[in-house]
Amino acid sequence: xxxxxxxxxxxAKGGWWRRLTSGLKRSSSALGGAISDLVTKRKLDAETIExxxxxxxRADLGIDxxxxxxxxxxxxxxxxAISSDEVKAVVAEEIEKALADxxxxxxxxxxxxxxxxxxxxxxxxxxxxxxxxxAAQYRAEGRSVMLAAGxxxxxxxIDQLKIWSGRTGADFIAHKSGADAAGLVFDAVxxxxxxxxxxxxxxxxxxxxxxxxxxxxxxxxxxxMKKVDPSAPHAVLLVLDATVGQNALSQVEIFRKAVGVTxxxxxxxxxxxxxxxxxxxxxxxxxxxxxxxxxxxxxxxAPFSAHDFARAIVGLEA
Length: 318
Description:
Blueprint: E1 2-4, H1 10-23, H2 25-39, H3 46-58, H4 63-77, H5 84-100, E2 107-109, E3 115-120, H6 127-140, E4 145-148, H7 155-168, E5 171-173, H8 181-195, E6 199-202, H9 212-228, E7 235-241, H10 247-259, E8 263-267, H11 277-285, E9 289-293, E10 301-303, H12 306-314
Parallel strand pairs: 3-6, 3-7, 4-5, 4-6, 7-8, 8-9
Antiparallel strand pairs: 1-2, 9-10
């Protein structure tokens, strides 16, 4: 049996839409504003289409997606008067197409006890906070959860995870600061197995993707984990900070090679005008996007919807 983080009644959906549009305001102001400026009182001629394509590339949507949108705009609307909302609707539709195949929930396989989620990412991407928010959501669904403080380099990360454990009622396991991360993970999987825990969320040290020895250690964590459960980890969630823009592309590439990333959570979309980078990542890597974060609260991390994101990022209503 499998199930997923499911969402919510209509009022909760309305609340999320408000948070999403508010969180993507910088991105939608930049992208939607550029489209409005270009289209107002002009026909959609070749020059305007080219300028729209440039605006889409500046918004980090990626060259391929920008070109596809420009081609679609030019196909049957060339030299016609067209409103900015009509252009935005075309842009949103093409963005949704680019994201539709990757907008997938993180499915918890209830036959796996524990279902092990290894959470990776560079320093400052929001890993530990994302783990805490997921723990809160899974606990709200009635699942038992254990948090493993695999970021043994930072005492602050261990403390932060312990606070989340207390807040959510999740089990918690840690070794002393500076301990071997692989040893902690071995103990965590064994303890969660013994207790019959539903979901084990494992924090890891923030790694710069260009530091080979740190990536090697992450690979070691995975190898050691398999000694307790050969099928683990059941999911490898890469947390990306939207504010880093194009740098996120190289992060996905290198973490995929090291630990076989199975899905993404993109955080801090409220802190950037470059939320379009998610589209470029989806286009290039086709890695599932499970969650997006648009703020600090537990409710500000939600399952990813291609339709909602595409409409919000160009400044249209759902």
